[in-house]
Amino acid sequence: MLLKKEELPQVANPMMNILHEEEVEIVNQLHDALKAKDIEKADHMFKVFLEDIEDHFSTEEDMMRESRFFAYQMHKGEHDTMKQKIYQLYEDWKQTRNFEDLIKFLEDEFKPWLILHISRWDAETAMHVGDTI
Questions:
Q1: Contact 56, 24 (CB under 8 A)
Q2: Separation of alpha carbons 44 and 51, rounded Å
C-alpha cells in the first residue's frame, strides 16, 4: 500500500475528496501490483491510473472554469506537469517494464506531490468553489 486514505488532506468540496479517495484506491492497486512484480495487473492498473488522472484533473479544471477560479492557470499547470511525467513514465514502462523506476516515482514523487497539491491547490480551489458545484 502506497497511501492510506486517512493520510489525504480533506478539502471543502466533497466531490474533490471523492476524486482523491478514488485515485488513492487505484494508485494503491498499481503500487501493490508493482511490488508483487505482476506485469499483467501492473499493465492494467497503469492504464486505469492514466484514465483516472485524466478524469480527476479534468473534473477539477471544469470546476475551476465554471467558478472562475483566479488561479486556474497555476493549478492547471501543476496538473499538466504531473500528467506529462506520468505519461512519459507510461511510455518508458511499455518499453522496459522496470518495476523499480515506477515504484520509486510513486513513493518518492507522486505520493508527496499529491499530498502537497491537495493541501495547497485543491484546498484553495475547494474554498473558492464551495460544495455547490
A1: no
A2: 11
Span 63-90, mean pLDDT?
97
> Within 10 A of 86 (CB to CB), how many other CB atoms are there?
19
Annotate 13-38 with b (16+ C-beta within 10 A) or e (fewer): beebbebbeebbebbbbbbebbeeee
Please give the distance of CA 17 from its chain centroid, rounded to a whole number.
12
Between CA 60 and CA 49 the distance in angstroms is: 16
Contact in structure between 65 and 58 (CB atoms under 8 Å): no
Residue type (1 letter), 74 = M
Q: What is the pLDDT of residue 15?
A: 94
For residues 75 and 60, the answer to whether their CB atoms sit within 8 Å is yes
Angle, to 10 degrees, between the axis of helix 39-66 and the axis of helix 14-35?
160
